[in-house]
Task: inverse folding
């Protein structure tokens, strides 16, 4: 339950504090303007004064979900967030591995990516690029959609020896729906059966017109195996990013999006987040969805502990009160009490929503009986 001082309530009602004190006195509640009253009393007062403003509004308790923009002069260039999409086995993870000089594919169960991996690379020109490697398996359509929402650019991987497959089309549709620019990476060109030209032609059927077909979608032939064309792919991403003029304010409390989260046996709830703006620091208190927490540790994509993470950086966050959902926004708040208050408020809201839905369900149940 929320408490509010008499003066604060008076301010909100545009009434004199003394008048509220008088009214309270008449209601057998002798208080001063600086004392707090509970929600029910506040409501009584509001009614007494003939105002319609009931309940301390949600916006005062919750954190504004509408993103107010940071002032122009505080914005700095930020790395692009690139999501790699494409059909199963077309080489998304291999491409990612080749770009960052790692080998994730080998460690995967059955070579199938089960979650969204988030990595950042630094190019030869010292440009940072954040990559999200989304699963290509049909069962993960949902996650792929989430991947598209935090993304600036999509790299659509198509195996030159296979062609346009169901999940290639799905990826195209998701990308278009999200309004995100696309770069086509025609992979596995080292294979003898590779036929990149045929891929370009087939893409036309899905209204993807690549540059080589006189369109404006950049296309690059690559091989994750031999490393051919990787520089060109990086270049294409750089070019696209430049056009987008991606910027964010680094020197403010962080706001980040949860990419994935799970309960880790040893470490407790862990979330991989992507910082949208601001800088996330160790010790920061935050709310994320209906959970609150305090950053106990930040771990980068190489498993190294870091002190802070700026815009576009993917980072693992430890110190959550529970497991949030992918897509939840993490917001840094001033203190733990505030974090808990907001999280609790959101949980209440979520419960209310569920109860509000129950009668409707009963109605339909009875309707079915008649
Ligand atoms: P999912 O995560 O299951 O969707 O697959 P993915 O798209 O990540 O494909 P992955 O990187 O696991 O590669 C699938 C297979 O293709 C592996 O056996 C890779 O070694 C192979 N492969 C990937 N890229 C190339 C390439 O450029 N050339 C050749 N010859 N093989 C490749
Ligand atoms: Mg993979």
Result:
């Amino acid at each position: 339950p929320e408490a509010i001082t008499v003066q604060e309530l008076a301010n909100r009602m545009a009434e004199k504090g003394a008048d509220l004190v008088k009214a309270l006195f008449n209601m057998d509640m002798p208080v001063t303007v600086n004392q707090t009253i509970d929600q029910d009393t506040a409501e009584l007062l509001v009614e007494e004064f003939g105002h319609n403003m009931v309940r301390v509004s949600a916006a005062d308790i919750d954190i504004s979900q509408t993103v107010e923009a940071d002032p122009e002069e505080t914005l700095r260039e930020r790395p692009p967030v690139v999501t790699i999409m494409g059909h199963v086995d077309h080489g998304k993870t291999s491409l990612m591995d080749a770009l960052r000089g790692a080998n994730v594919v080998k460690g995967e169960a059955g070579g199938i990516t089960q979650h969204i991996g988030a990595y950042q690379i630094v190019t030869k020109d010292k440009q940072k690029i954040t990559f999200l490697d989304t699963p290509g398996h049909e069962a993960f359509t949902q996650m792929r959609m989430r991947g598209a929402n935090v993304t600036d650019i999509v790299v659509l991987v198509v195996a030159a020896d296979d062609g346009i497959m169901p999940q290639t089309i799905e990826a195209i549709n998701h990308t278009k729906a999200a309004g995100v620019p696309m770069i086509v990476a025609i992979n596995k060109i080292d294979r003898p059966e590779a036929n990149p030209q045929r891929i370009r032609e087939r893409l036309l059927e899905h209204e993807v017109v690549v540059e080589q077909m006189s369109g404006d979608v950049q296309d690059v032939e690559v091989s994750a195996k031999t490393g051919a064309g990787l520089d060109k792919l990086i270049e294409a991403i750089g070019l696209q990013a430049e056009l987008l003029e991606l910027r964010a304010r680094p020197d403010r409390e962080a706001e980040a999006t949860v990419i994935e989260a799970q309960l880790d046996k040893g470490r407790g709830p862990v979330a991989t987040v992507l910082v949208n703006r601001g800088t996330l620091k160790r010790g920061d208190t935050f709310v994320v969805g209906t959970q609150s927490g305090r950053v106990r540790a930040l771990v980068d994509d190489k498993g190294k502990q870091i002190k802070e993470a700026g815009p576009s950086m993917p980072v693992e966050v430890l110190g959550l009160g529970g497991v949030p959902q992918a897509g939840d926004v993490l917001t840094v708040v001033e203190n733990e009490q505030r974090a808990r208050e907001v999280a609790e408020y959101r949980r209440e809201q979520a419960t209310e929503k569920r109860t509000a839905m129950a009668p409707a369900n009963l109605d339909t149940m009875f309707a079915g009986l008649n």
Q: What stands out?
A: The first strand starts at residue 3 and ends at 5. The longest helix spans residues 336-369. The CA atoms of residues 179 and 248 lie 20 Å apart. The two ends are 42 Å apart (CA to CA).
